[in-house]
Amino acid sequence: MKKFALAGNPNSGKTTLFNILTGSSAHVGNWPGVTVDKREGVYKKGKTPISLVDLPGIYSLAPYTPEEVISRNFILEEKPDCVINIVDATNLERNLYLTTQIMEIDVPMVIALNMMDVLEKQGDKIDEVKLSERLGIPVIKVSALHGTGVHELMQKAIECSKEKRKATTVLENCDVAHLIGDVNIALEAQGIENPLFHAIKLVENDELEVKMHPTTIKMVDDFKNTFSDDTFGTDFEALVADARYKHITKNYSPLLVKKNNGLKLTSSDKADKILTNKWAGIPIFLVILFSLFHLTFGEDFLFLGKIFSLPTIEDLGLADNFGTALLACFYDGAVFSPGVILFNLMGLLTSTVFGYIGLGLESLGASDWVLGLVCDGVLGGIGGVLSFVPQIVFLLLLLSILEDTGYMARVAFILDRIFRKFGISGRAFIPMIMGFGCSVPAMINTRTLVDEKERTLTLRTIPFFSCGAKLPILTAVAGAIGMMTGRDGSIISFAMYVLGMVVAVVSILLMRSTTQRGEVSPFIMELPAYHKPSFKGLMVHLWDKIKHYVKKVFTVILASTIVIWFLSNFGWNWQMCEIEQSILASIGQLIQPLFTPLGFGSQLNSYGWVFVVAAITGLIAKEEVIATFGTLASIFALSGVEGAAAVNAMAIGTGITWAGLIAFIVFNMTTIPCFGAVATAKGETLKGKFRWTLLFWIVASYTVSMMAYLVLSWWWTSFIFVALAVALIFGIKLYNKNHPIGEKK
Ligand code: GDP
Ligand code: MG
Description:
Structural class: mainly alpha
CATH superfamily of the domain at 2-160: P-loop containing nucleotide triphosphate hydrolases
Number of strands: 8
Strand content: under 5%
Strand order of the largest sheet: 2-3-1-4-5-7
Bound molecules: guanosine-5'-diphosphate, magnesium ion
Oligomer: single chain
């Protein structure tokens, strides 16, 4: 089977094109660096199937980032039958810079001139026939988003793949052209493949090449002794880069005719004037973030209930029937926000359906333990998790919209100024925000951070950005706190999200001044143009994010709810027993004292172990925590209650305080993430750093939740923590003064 590779700049639309050609649903994001690994698929719409590889986005074939090395080695070593170079027509110069480098490899190549829809909408024109003539490479206009031109593109690529292509370069007239020619001949004589490419990289003093051709590099060094340029001296890398850009602006740029001569601001520029404004940028971001949470979790939509003091359902004195229950999904003393309505509807649906299943089983004469297992164990656990699905989907949808419009990339940009102060570049924001969806892709995305320390730092803080699976914990526990204290649960959820971010910042500061000292790498990321998110793109996105979740519900969670039900209904003598004699209770009670400083340990009455057990089961998957509550709620003679109601019942039953509940959320949010994320962290961290990463999570979660509990219970303990913090900062400063960077081995 023939193999084609898609290569291009980050955000040029490679993955969109890949998805449309292969019919797959890889993650598309409107910011650079979403694809960090190559991905394969098959194009089946031609005469013969063709294998397609989506390479990570790169700006150049230099060996500086892992993406560049992956893409470069793939083209050089795996020798695809054709390289489809995607060029974002709205960013022509920068994209062609890469093109001029791929050209230098002996590989068939076609150019997909992408984003033609945007160009046409702006009224700009591009002469692709001339462009193709001048480059000596076929150019096909496409719009990956709308799928126009993509099959012509493949047709052309198939045609090209039938013939060999000899490498060409745009450096023929530059000052080091002769040197390149000589090195090329020398390498050719040594029988090296792709001599032109290697010759140019050698002249650029490319690290990888210098190591590979130690003898030939002498030619370059000798030449340097006789040559010096006014601007670049003997920095041939800069000289070559300059020559490439000059060639591009002279020969290719004039082929793109802009309607407004590039003088008028595009609407994207106008929007950026406000959204990335030095002063307004961050407040706008916070308002958007708050609206997002209000829409998802708000129990008093637009605060209508408060403003008009609306009556509750009880006040209205409605009959207790299904109609009232349905009404209660939308309104009870306040209009609920869309996210909450979805949650309530799903809850009503699951409890109704599960109720009928229970009745059905009873009428069939099922034994008590079967009823217990099915209703309390399985349905209770699964129901608890399932009812959150619509709400999670809704939140992810809102996040995806922000991401697809290109706004998230702006946030990375406006946050860079602040991030920098904390010792990290704004680029780290992208994996962090991905962490709100799922830690696994977020951790993989840290590969886009060039600096190793920065990468370690970011990876460690990703679990603090509460993922979709932790959302049920947040809503249910925050909801229970709301019931206990009469406050709006959504404000607590929002505060918890913010707290997670604060913990991340503090951890970064701490690590930056202790184990991970060093400079912040510069912010290099270009802002993609704003655009309307496509419906299909959003759906692909959403599905990408929720499929793991739904799969988990019916596999890991189903299996472990059964195990937990068993452990909580059977004693060590393998006989069914009361829950307080169960295996689960005894394990919980054994480790419970460890959690006393966190407010959910020994101070609770004999049922207090439920919180410990729930937190431990969270290590399997975070959804487990709430599933476990659903299962355990039956202890309090409450089967079939879910979410906040289940937690509230437990809070009353165990005597946990609201401060303890907050500490419980904090612990779950900051501790070791689920199995999947831990395995990813192991794969993505440097050797030897993984153990420390695990330890870091344990220490961080224990410390922060202890602080939360103590300070919220006894406000004066905050003085102790402030004093400790001051002492710590002072100690670190003193140590670092005596041990400047550099001196360390
Ligand atoms: P990659 O980083 O090269 O893989 O780029 P993606 O495929 O993730 O696309 C980046 C962004 O550009 C996404 O938001 C896409 O929806 C958008 N995009 C891709 N191709 C087109 C196109 O032809 N037209 C428009 N308007 N947007 C596109
Ligand atoms: Mg991609």
